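INFO batch 0412 | record 1 of 1 | parsing
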Amino acid sequence: MSTIQIGRIIAIHRKEKGITQEELANHLGVSKPAVSKWESGQSYPDILLLPELASYFDITIDHLIGYEPQMTKEDVRKLYHRLAKDFAEKPFTQVYEECEGYLKKYFSCWELQYRMGLLLINHSSLAGSQEAAINIMERVLKLYQRIEKSCDEVIMVKMALKMQSLCHLMLQQPLEAIDILEDIQELYMPAESMLVKAYQMKGDQQKALEHLQGYTYMNLVTMLGAATDYLAMYAGQPEKMKFYYDLFLDLGRLFEVEELHSVMLIQIHLSAAMIYISQGNKEEALEALEKYTELLLKSNHGEFSLHGNRIFDMVDQYLVNVIEETEMPRNSEVVWNDLINIILNNPMFEALEKEERFIRMKKQVEHYGK
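INFO prediction complete | emitting C-alpha cells
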C-alpha cells in the first residue's frame, strides 16, 4: 500500500548510478537546488520530465513515482479485517469514507474492489437508517457491475455476478437476481472428492484427510444454511415446518455444530421463532427463542470464528490453506451486537413482551450484552 514517493526513488537510483545531484540536474537541464528539493520532498519534477527521468534510470514511470495500482492478496486480507474491526469500534461514516478512499486509490485492483464490496455489504446495517443501507447496497451493486465488465479474470467475473445477484436480493429485486443466476448456473462437479482420491493415490494421507474433512465441513455449512429457507417455505404448513426444524437440529447435534460454528444454529432457532410468531404459536416461539438465547450467551461475546471440533479435527488447516478466510466476514463484535439487538428490539416479538419467559430472556441478554 505505497504512496507517491518520487523524491526518495530519484535519490536511490541516482546513488545507485553513482552520480551527484548536480550531474543529474545538468542532464535534465534544471538547477541543482531543484533536484535537492525533489529528493527532500519539498517539490516534484515537472510532469514533462517524468519520461526522461524514467528513461535515464531505466525504470517505468509507475516505479519512478512509487505508485503501485495493485495490492497483494495478503495486504487486502489484512486491510479487510482491520476495517471490519474498525466498523465495530469507530463511527460508521469515518470507516465508510476510508473504504471509499481505498476504492478510489486502487481502482483497478479487482481483489481489493471485490473485498471492499463484501465488507460494505456485511456492515451496511450499521449505516444508521434503512435509506442509508439501501444507498450503500446500490453503490456496491455498481461496483460489482464494473468488476464484471472490466476485469479479465474469469473466476473474479463469476464471483462479481453472484454478488450482483445478492445485492439485487437485498434491494428486493428478485427478477434481476433470477436473470443473473439462471445465466451462471454451473454443473456441480465435486473436485474436492477427486482431490482426496488423488492424495490417497499419492500416499499423502494427511492431505487426503484434510480435504475430506474440509469439503464435508463446507457441505454441512451449506445444508444448515438452507434450513432457514426450508422453514420459510413451509411456514404455511406447521407440521411440515416443525419436521424440518427438528431435522436440521438433529443434523446439528449429529455433527456437534454447536462446537463448530454456533451462529448456524442460532439462525435456525431465530427463523423458527419468527415463523411460530406468525402462526400465533407463542409457546413454540418462546421455546425457540430460549434456545437462541442460550446459544448466544454461550458464545462468549461473539466467538464466531470458523474452526473444527472432535469430528472435524483436521479442518483448521484446510480452512487456512484452501479458504484462506477463517474469520467471519463481519467482525464478531458486530455480529454479536446484531444478535443481541434481535432479542431487545425486534418488532416481530412485540406479542411476547408481557410473557415472563421473554422478559427473563431480555434481562439475561441485557446483562451479558454490556
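INFO post-check: The chain has a mean pLDDT of 88.
INFO record closed
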